[in-house]
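Q: Joint fold for the lines below.
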Amino acid sequence: MNFPWLTILGLLPIAGGLALFLPVKGASRPLGMFFALATLVMGLATAGVYGADPASLTVQAPWIRAIGAWWALGADGMGLAMVLMTVVLTPLVLLAEWKLPFEGGKWGPQAFIALLLILEGLSIFVFTANDVLLFYLFFEATLIPVYFLIIGYGGARRGYAAIKFLLFSLAGGLIMLASVIGLYAVSSSQGAPSYLLGDLQRIDLGGDLGRWLMVGFLIAFVIKAPMVPLHTWLPDAAEQSTPGTATMLVGVLDKIGTFGMIKFCLGLFPEASRWAAPVMMFLALVSILWGALAAIASTNLMRLVAYTSVSHFGFMVLGIYVMTTQGISGSVFYMLNHGFSTAALFLVVGFLIHRSGSADINAFGGAQKLVPVFSGVFLVAWLSALGLPGLSTFVSEFMVLAGTFGREPWYAAIAAIGVILAAVYALRVYRVVMTGPVTDASQAHFVGRDLTVLEKAVMVPIIGVMLVLGFYPQPAVQLVEPTAQTAMQRVQVADPAPVVKGEK
Amino acid sequence: MTSMLVPLFTAPVIEFRELAPVLILFAAAIVGVLVDAFLLRDWRRWRDEIQMGLLIGSTVAALVYVVLNARKGLSGPLAMGSLMLDGPTYVAWGALLVFGLLAVLVFRERRVNGGVTVFASAASSVPGSVEEAEADRVRLEQTEVYPLALFALTGMLVFVAANDLLTLFVALEVFSLPLYLLCGMARRRRLLSQEASLKYFLLGAFSSGIFLFGVALLYAFAGSFRLGDIAAAVTAPQYGRGLLYAGLVLLVVGLLFKVGVVPFHNWTPDVYVGAPTPVTGFMAICTKLAAVLATLRVLYVALGGERWSWQPMLAVLAVLTMALGAVAGLTQRDVKRMLAYSSIAHAGFLLTAVVGASQDAARTPTSVSAILFYLIAYGFATVGAFGLVTMVRNEAGEDNSFAAWSGLAKKNPWIAGLMSLFLLSFAGIPLTAGFIGKWTVFAAAWRGGYSWLVVVAVLLSLVAAYFYLRLIVVMFGGEPARNSFVSEASGWTWVPVLIGAAATVWLGVLPDSVLSVASGLGTFLR
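A: Joint structure:
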């Protein structure tokens, strides 16, 4: 039996979150930060253990014997990347929300921190579960803290946004439940039932039944990684959330969608996934373009950032379903980078809203002259959204496009339009908010209010990670590449003759 | 002379040890009636304590016998074959005793209601009469509710174990009559309560008639009341099958009435609202559990050979029940009424597993064990939810409107949080017992070859989930209601609520213990 690194890693923040429901008076922020940092340290240690021997993270113990469900945790490159992203982002989000104003009938900071920590722990379990039922359990359980984070701390229409988020997610989850039950029926008809990923992969899940079961999973993941046409809950949820909640929601939780497509759709149903690939690639293209165009048309900054994510998730899905090693590893790397890029965008927009009380893009103007450091950070965040070379998002976007081009040149060409549109919306935001003559509103809100030390402490690590991974992506790509190779073996598709060299 | 009597009369063999749970409850109920009637004046002020002592003592003793007998592995036909002691009987007895005890503890609650119970001074008092007002003024109270609950519980124990149709019918009446009476005993809104009672009684009597007619037809078909004999007749019929089909339909109608399945559900909302809330909680779980188990036994043991004819019929009823419960639940603005429609929806989810009739595989859950687990999960959440419902009040008394529950989280986050836990369990959200329950019944339906029913069921679960979430939104998102408050409750309410909450989480996270027990005891003896 291995030392249960992942179990402790997940339970640590959950324990912290539960502890914060006890009356701790004013100590909630330091206590929350302590647990978040402890989880970060534990996460880095876990990564070290993984580096020595990936298999040493695997734990497996019977959970519900009667139905063949296991407490089975383990990490591959993709899972570890997601876990690391989660443990790094959580303390930063906590720091960014350090001075969150809790007025206007909203709840106190203590419950916010508690829910955030619980959410972190549940997410870690989602990304490491090697048992389908266990994955499903945590997949659904993450919805509850997010729901309360929105309804307790959101904007004026938080009730509507929260229930919309929950209903969309539950709809996907319940459809997936039918597939999860179907897997059990198939598995138990072959002998003793088992929900272990390894056991299920040995069963041939081809044919019509396999396709139906796969569709159940896929619908849930398409809703989760919001793809057009099932994305409409995301802009509302993001707009009504606090920036920290939005970061966790879009940066971390939505990754479960693309994560699940690779681990469960491709991993369990290779034949059905090949069958669904054309439709998924088409939807991915629609998402890329629709998301970017909607972002261009948005005037609310939080909605705008949400739409950019719809576009970016389109890239990830395209990379997955084009089924090339480069495409899938680019996709997984993209998932990692997008987490940090989205965090930068949401949090910096949050700083803006904190100063002016408005998320309307036209409420600003000429702020660059008043808050130079702020505007520099703001620019970097938006450049990461458009994938500027030197920032990590560029590398992953390029890998996806290159991986796509090898098999489907036309798809790559159309997807490239999305890159151009990204430049349009990113630069437009910067131009409208930061450049031009100083407006009265900017004068009133920004004079002498450049980034605080606290805000710098949030942004410096995020931008640092993006720069490091942008200039030296090798370790991260090596981390995620085995995932892509395994997935390729599962779907039994060979890479096309490589046409793009020198970029890895 | 004596020698001639021997062949004519064999003394019935009564297995006292095996029957001990039933006998203990029955004896305690009778003693309870005597206590209520004949206790001397000096002792009368201890009447509550004596009744509670009888109730707790008898249910715990019965529970001990259930556990001991189960561990000893006692099983087989009892009392000349009129009862059957088998795995499902043990689980159902255990569950009924636990839930019965937890639900009846709430009967004793006085603090929440300003020193009086929620019951009228006596079941026989005329609403609005001078006598009643006088009885209220001098705080004259009968304690008949406790023996009534014990009689009902006794009937339920017999009902789930009944091995012939006549015993089944007698048990049905034994547990129904006290419930009719209990429903009409609300101290507040007397007439509403009386109306609920009358409605329940009339419809219940009508359905009993239908049930009895079904019994007669099946007797005509099989020549016996025994479930096993009917099963034999089904495989090798002596007479035409017309009698069988007619009898089957009528019998099932009578049983499904008690379960609350569409189109026999009409009594549920009014009775749930009109009855005193602790009684509603008692009925919501115990009646449902007993009725579902008896339905299962009749269908699987006696009519299992005829399943091709009842499966499609019940599949249609399952869809109708889930749909009506979920959709009608959406429009409710009253917590108790919403929980009534929720119980209808849950009856539909349970029916999916009944339809599946999945019986294979040794250690995996069968339909019976899936349903037992579901009912246990549902029971803990029900006990807890109805306990909490009694605490939200206005000046006049308990206030069940959504308006009164609005913004509850700001007044009392613990009550709102606990209620949310129970609602999430009803909705089947993971990490609560309700999720595992839902999984087991849907899995049983799928393995029985009804995958389409599972797809319909998950879609309707979404609709059902929405109406539970509505109440959570109201509690957490709404503006705090001005004219309602959370009343302090004593341990009589808090103990069941907290046990319900702990069990809901425990069965949601580590269901293995209970699920394995249920799976091991998931087969009816014939």
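Q: Anything notable?
A: Chain B has one domain: 12-520. The mean pLDDT of chain B is 90.
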